[in-house]
Amino acid sequence: MLPNDLKMTMRRIIRRKPSGQVVGIILCLVGLVILFLVFWKAWSGISDFSNVLSSIWSYILTEKMELAYGVKLELTYLGIAGLIFLGSGIILFVLSRQIFYLSGQSVLLQCPYCKNHWRTSRAKGWAECPHCRQFIQPQVAKKGT
Predict the structure, then answer these.
(1) Is the N or the C terminus of the chain less surrounded, counting Cβ atoms within 10 Å?
(2) What count of other Cβ atoms lies within 10 Å of the Cβ of residue 26?
(3) Domains of the chain, residue spans
(4) 82 closest CA partner among 22, 26, 33
(5) Distance (Å, rounded) from C-alpha 124 to C-alpha 138?
(6) Exposure pattern of 42-79 as b/e (b: 16+ CB <10 Å)?
(7) Would the pTM of this model clear 0.90, i.e. be above it?
(8) Measured between alpha carbons, how far is residue 75 from residues 1, 9, 25, 80, 88 in Å?
């Protein structure tokens, strides 16, 4: 983290990666659907309503769910898969953002050909001189405001 006085002089840029956000949202939705199916199956299968939480957990730990003809999975495994999908989707969604801080100070650059000066918000490796229109590597003449 940056100190508050340094944050005040810097500009914050947030770069989002849409593909990462879309994949993260899809993984979250798949995880939520799986968890919903597990709890829906468990809720419809319990018979003892005196202690609901222990009945749901015992049902989830013992019962199997038929996904396709001949393919059965325990509800425990489906619940773990749902949590993994949900967690990885959240992590991917959060990590698909990058935050950059750019200095708010301006820099005085000098063209090596025409020797003219101009101010810019940051030092650049390559730039076009606004005076002679040449693509150059400008020299930093002075840093500051």
Answers:
(1) N
(2) 14
(3) 4-100, 105-144
(4) 33
(5) 7
(6) beeebeeeeeeeebbeebbeeeebeeeeeeeeebeebb
(7) no
(8) 42, 54, 23, 9, 20
